Protein: YtkA-like domain-containing protein
Amino acid sequence: MSKKTGEKVNVFEGSIGIPNTAIKDNDKVGRMPSMMTLPSKGLWRLEAYVEEKLFGSVVVEVH
Structure:
């Protein structure tokens, strides 16, 4: 969500892939593409949802 305008955009969605490699079950690491584009400069709060539940957020400044 843009701090300046309140605009909300979906920058990407998908599923997290767990690599099918020989690692311990408790050491599995999920991977997700990180390329995204925001429509304008300014401060944006990025929110991560997992199964429609807010997992966390981070604020970034777009130049």
